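Complex record, two chains
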Amino acid sequence: MRLFFNYTLVGLTQGMIYAAVALGLVLAWRSTRILNFAQGAMAMVTTYVAETLLEHSVGYWEALVVAVAAGLVLGAVTERVVIRPVESRNPLNAVIVAIGVLIFLEASAAGIWGSQERGFPAPFSVIGYTVGGSGIEFTPFNLFVILAVLAMMGLLMALFRFTALGLRMRASAFSPEVAGMLGVRVKRLLTLGWALAAGVGALAGLFVAPSVFLFPQNMDEILIFGFTAAIIGGLDSPLGALVGGLVSGLALSYIGGYVGSSFTASGAVLLLVLVLMVRPSGLFSSSQARRV
Amino acid sequence: MAGIVADPDPVAPATTHAADPAGAPPGRIGPAALHRLRLPTQPLLRHGLLAVIAGAACYLLSVQVSSFSNFNIAEVAVYTIVIAGLALLVGGTGQVSLGHAALMCVGAYAYADLEAHNPHIPLAVGVIFATALTAAAGGIVGAAAARLRGPYLAGVTLALGLAVPQLADHYFSSDQGISVSFTPPSSVETNHWLAWICLLCALIVLFLIANLRTSRWARAFSAVRDDEIAASLAGINVARTQILGFVISAACAGLGGALLAIGDLGATSGSFPISLSILLIAGMVIGGTGTLVGAVWGGLLVVYGPIWLDDVVGSTTSQLGVNLPSIVFGALIVLVVIFLPDGIQGSLNRVVSRVQKRLQW
């Protein structure tokens, strides 16, 4: 029972991180219908930016703001410069471009910062809380991660639901032509969508780094599990990303704990297949992926 | 090609061939100019003749160059096989697999494990066993994949690409993997023998796929890719066609994996990371998805791209210099996809046909 409790807590924190990665993928997917495979690499680069600032004795919160800002810029520049030329073509071409960006960013990071692992600080204690005299697998930093991801998700939902900008973004994702005819500057909003996606990713990168260390490939595996979460959630719903993240975080934590850590990726495959057998386009998908 | 005379009636052979799955001009497996040469119009004969010519050319090349180059040639042949199979899936039935290295991993471990238990088994038997086993695994993946589309399929195959090497490590005890022995006949140098085996396999696979592309199965593939509902109205079993695509593609990957295990003298999960799956997809798109020659370009790119970039821009003197080849490689992938959307072979075909039009052939 105690073990189950700890696996659940680990799963919740992991799930929130997967949800943040998934949310970034969902934002990029909503705006351009492209899977951003470079999302993890972008987050890695912004984490390195924060790490460099921290080394120069800048405070954690200032570094966090700069990292997120760097993410916004990186996302916008990527969309504007390399994704836009292939947006209207075969979706596979956009995937390859994103993969090219991934290789470029990982190699550049290795070139600039080196490929050895670096530690990355957490703003709160990473020593577990004590309940009833014994420690549990839940730290103040985990609590902060969960609250921060929830707050970010709430802010984005408010942006989409209650602001004119959010309405325009939803309109241009839903029907680019009609939105364009009504005077929405669709292309600009696509860039904004990618910027937001990379900003969210930058936060995820900062939250991951304390536990997996910082190196050029540190987001690769997390991106795959975030991708799993996004797909389970239905790819175009932020709420779906949250639920998908929690479901995959918990499932993978139980599988890793009870079955063995060699089976986490197989667990992700199984989870994907099970969910998609029941709902072929994810739990919260609003539009059908299959054209009929 | 000097001995072959230009065909005075270029239209005649074209009409006898079935539609090409990728929408390129029919029946054509080489540059457009090849099509105008007097080759047999019967697909079997035509492809057989081309395979024999290519085989002779490869043999001549192989005996000319060094042992080390022969190892690279073997690798090119292996990746050509895998990319041709991948292109049959992506360009044929329109299903994306981002975990093809996992299928190669299955082939490699199947060969290595069979050899570990039966040390005296002939190489050909082992390779065929590995190919068949991977094809069966592909059938299972294909059955699940037949329900999934686009990004959902991409997600499942990507997770599979992570899962299979993990499982291989778990069940085959260690990161060292299983070692494989490879003993060529005493009169032939090891890497030459390896290159010949891989080239022979590649030619057989390309020959079979070239024939498949003129068959009714290829037409069923394109029908399913372009419009599933129309295809099923026309009496095509969509799910079965998609599974068949996965089985053939997996067989190619398994064969490639087994050959790679032979060349590397062992199967290790570390040889089949997610990044290899992604590199295969990149090689396929940059080579040109629609054509078989595109797969050869893809194989050349996957093997020689890093080597060539290392020679040109790499240096070991600084941290940046060590990583510069990969930086340029990433940038090149982006640039090629933006400026040559049909890949190398697609662009070559376009240039050739434009020149022909200019010259009024």
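Note: Chain B is about 75% helix and 0% strand.
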